[in-house]
Each structure stands twice: as structure tokens, then as C-alpha cells.
Amino acid sequence: MATVVREEKIRKKSTSKRIANFITYTLLISGSFLILIPFYWMVSSSLKEASQIFKSPPEWLPTQQVKMKIDGKEYGVFTMSQGEDVLKVAGVIPMDPASETTAVRVMEGETIGAKELTVTKTALTEVRKVSPVWDNYPEALKFMNFLGCLKNTCIITFVCMVGQILSASIVAFGFARMRFPGRDILFIVLLSTIMLPPQVTLIPIFKIFTSIGWYDTFYPLTVPAFFGGGVFFIFLLRQYYMTIPIEMDEAAKIDGAGTFGTFTKVILPQAKPALATVAIFSFMAHWNDFLGPLIYLSDPTKRTLALALWSFQGEHATDWHLLMAAATVVMLPLLTLFFCAQKYFIQGVVISGVKG
């Protein structure tokens, strides 16, 4: 009897666990879809024409459009005045058999409003279907000088990434392994600087860099990375170093290794997940950095990808379809990096104790 009761409890517990797992995974999947909506809209808009992006109701897919030329001028066709949907016709504008003319609603240029036109068979010179608009990508990359901006962005990003990994790992080693008077107080002061908004120090730092002749160069964007590496990176690496047993340092000293040898041969080889996390965070921060290049760079040939995206926003109009195409291309390296290194990224964050 006791065995039957125990099995019944186990069965009920297993059923409850399955229900809880089902609800949990359903909520996670639903949340993932909600988070991916902006990304999907960006990719979808990059394959549309400008006139399709702000249509109401919105088009979630880059649907097929019919283009036609009337007296040499190109129009985008919406619907016939009789209500027949031209988009469902296989590339042919239906004409009234009893007449040589017909009325069509068209989109003129890139404007959103439509108007009626009377079309004759002789004036209608070309009918073609357009979808999706893959030409947005080469046009956007040409407009933003993609290769030049990519070169500048890579220089700044990789130099800063190397500098932050080197300097942050050394500073974190000092706080985690070396003992000196005031170490804990200095570490608390260092962490307290996180609460200082960067806008507060923006003007003084700008004045310093301009006074030494570094304006319109890459130095203000790269040199500071070699002096400390960032408070967050120091904290993350210090937390990771403290999970490594101190006995390994003592064993290295017995074998004749000095402080630097212990750091390079004992600590760093075991800190690969944390270093990979720092590299990912650093890459993302400098790849997407907009404020720094905007302040310190004025030469158009030194523009980064973030500044190039900004150039799509004109004074009177914005080429949203080209902007979305360029943003999709700029985002691809970040997605590739994260998916390739997510194993080290998750391991480094979890072991170092940094959450949320």
C-alpha cells in the first residue's frame, strides 16, 4: 500500500513538473518572439521600397509590387479604380476591352499619397514586378562608403579590445592576488566611479585631448583603453581570479615563478572564459560606439560604421529602406561573434558571479 501511495505521489509530482516546464518554455518562447520583432522588422524593411515601409496596415513581408512606366515615368501601382488588386495579376495591367483607356491608382515617386491616372495602351510602355528589393543592399553600402568605414571601425575596435584585455587583466590581478596597504579601499573607490556618468567628464577630457593635438585622430578613441581597461572589466576579471585556488600561486612560487610568471602561466590560461567575455563586451561597445567618433572625428574619411548609419538621416527626409539594409549588414558581425563565442561568454559571466 505504501509503495502505491509513493508511486502516486511521484506520478503527480512528475505531472506537475511537466506542466511547469511547459508553461516556462511557452513563456520563454513567446518572450523570444517579442524580442525578435524589431530585428525582423529591420530585415523585412531592408527588402522593401521606401513607399512600402509606412503603409497602413503594415506589411510584415516584402510583398510583391507591380511597377509600370507611363510616358517614360515610373509609378508603383496599388489597385485599379474598379477595385481589382493589380498585385494579384501576373505582371499585366488589366485594360477595359471596350476602351483604350483605364483609370489606375498609383504611387508617385517616394511619396505616400496615391492619385488617379488615366492610362492609354500606347502610353503604358513597361510593366514589371518587384519583390524583394535586393538592390537596397549594394546601394546602401555604396552610399555609406562601407569598406572605408569598416576599416576605421575595425582599427578602433580591435586596438581597444586588445588594450582593455591587457590592462584590465593586469589591474584585476593586482586586486585579486597582490596584498598591499589600502587595496580594498582603492577597489571600493574604483567601483564607485561606475556611478559617475560619462557626460560629467566629457568636456574636461575633450579639452585635454584637443590641447595635445589629438582631435580628429583615433588616439582619443584607442589610447585610454590601455590605461585600466574599464571598471566593469576589472571587476569581472577580479571576481573570476578569486575563484582560482590560491594554492596554485604558491605552487608556482615554489617552482621559481615570479609574480609576472604566475600571472602569465597560471592565472591567464585558466581565465580564458572571463577574457572571452571581456573581448565580446569590448567588441560590442566599440563596434557600436557613436558618441566618441561623433565628438572626436570630423574628417569624413575617418567615419566609423555608426557615423555612416547616422548619415542616412537627412535634414528633410530619411532613406529608411537603405538605412535598414545598412543596419542589417553592420549588425551581422556582432551576431556572428556572439553565436561563435557564447559558450565562453556564458561560462565567464556565470563563474565570475556577474548577473543580469
Helices, strands, pairings?
Elements: H1 2-46, H2 50-53, E1 65-70, E2 73-80, E3 101-108, E4 114-120, E5 124-130, H3 136-143, H4 146-177, H5 183-192, H6 198-211, H7 219-222, H8 231-241, H9 246-254, H10 259-270, H11 272-287, H12 291-296, H13 305-310, H14 320-352
Antiparallel strand pairs: 1-2, 1-5, 2-3, 3-4
Helix pairs in contact: 1-14, 3-14, 4-8, 4-11, 8-14, 9-10, 11-14
Explain what you see.
There is one protein chain. The protein is of the alpha+beta class and 356 residues long. Helix content is 59%, strand content 10%. Helix 1 packs antiparallel against helix 14, helix 3 crosses helix 14 and helix 8 packs parallel to helix 14. The longest helix has 45 residues. It is flat and about 90 Å long.
Summarize the structure.
The protein is α+β, with helices and mostly antiparallel strands and 356 residues long. Helices cover 59% and strands 10% of the residues.
Descriptive tags:
2 domains, MetI-like fold, alpha+beta, 10% strand, flat, 14 helices, 5-stranded antiparallel sheet, 356 residues, 5 strands
- Here the CATH topology of the largest domain equals MetI-like fold
Counting H and I runs of at least 4 residues, what is the number of helices? Answer: 14
Shape: flat
Number of strands: 5
Structural class: alpha+beta
Q: What would CATH call the class of the largest domain?
A: Mainly Alpha
For the terminal residues, how far apart are their CA atoms?
Answer: 48 Å
* Main β-sheet, spatial strand arrangement: 4-3-2-1-5
- Count structural domains: 2
Average pLDDT reading: 78
What's the order of the H and E elements? HHEEEEEHHHHHHHHHHHH
| Low-confidence spans | 78-98, 108-114
What is the helix content? Answer: 55-70%
* CATH H-level homologous superfamily name of the largest domain: MetI-like
What CATH architecture of the largest domain do you see?
Orthogonal Bundle
Round the Cα radius of gyration to an integer and report it: 30 Å
Strand content: 5-15%
Largest sheet: 5 strands, antiparallel
